[in-house]
Every structure is written in structure tokens, then in C-alpha cells.
Amino acid sequence: MGSVKVVSGLTFLRYVLPALLVIAGFVSLFVIEDDIRWDLWAMLVGSGLALLLLNVLFRYGAKGDKEREDEESAREYFAQHGRWPDD
After folding, report:
1. Tag placement on the chain: N or C end, fewer CB within 10 Å?
2. How far is CA 32 from CA 12, 14, 37, 46, 51, in A?
3. What is the H or E stretch that residue 2 is in?
4. Whole-model pTM?
5. Looking at the domain assignment, is residue 25 inside a domain?
6. Does 60 map to a domain?
7. Where does 1-72 show beta strands of DSSP type E?
């Protein structure tokens, strides 16, 4: 019996939804015969790439929080022991 992996909401929002939007844009480009297909393609691909970039920038910004926490813990270690933790 095959197992089905459930995609979490955050994974869906970060990777699956942008991919679906870009794929839908290219599908609409080849399926629709009217001139509106270029507008729909640009809208779908642009929104998919914008969502992906927003997620990348958010994760990059959140990485700075971890670096600040590491620096603060290193300063506390220095105050207690008189040397940096990686020395």
C-alpha cells in the first residue's frame, strides 16, 4: 500500500504555491488563443515569482535574528569566562 506524504501549510506556501502559479502561467500561455494570454501569463508568473522572492527575503531576514541571538550568547559567555566561546 502506497503512502501519501502530506505537505505542511508552510511548505505549500513557500514552494508549492509559487510553482503552481508559474506553471499555470505557462499553461495559460499555450492553452488560451486570445491576446489576453500574455496578460494572464505575466500576471501568474509575476505573482509566483514575487511570492517566492518574498519568502526568500523573509527567511534571509529571519536568519539575522539567529545571528543576533548567537552574538548575545557569546557576549554572555565572554562576561562569565573572560574569553570568546570559539577561542
Report:
1. N
2. 27, 28, 6, 18, 24
3. none
4. 0.68
5. yes
6. yes
7. none
How far apart CA 49 and CA 56 sit, in angstroms, is 10
Task: Extract the C-alpha cell encoding 70.
Answer: 548567537
Other CB atoms closer than 10 Å to residue 44's CB: what's the count?
Answer: 20
pLDDT at 1: 53
CA distance linking residue 71 with residue 50, whole number of Å: 32
Q: Are 70 and 85 in contact (CB under 8 A)?
A: no
Taking all residues of the chain, what is their mean pLDDT, rounded to a whole number?
A: 87
Tell me the residue length of the chain: 87
Half-sphere exposure of 84 (CA within 13 A, CB side): 5
Please give the Cα distance from 46 to 40 (Å, whole number): 10
39 lies in which domain range?
Answer: 9-81
Looking at residue 3, its pLDDT comes to 62
In angstroms, what CA-CA distances link 82 with 6, 67, 71, 72, 86? 49, 21, 15, 15, 12
Can you read off the three cell numbers belonging to residue 48?
Answer: 509566483
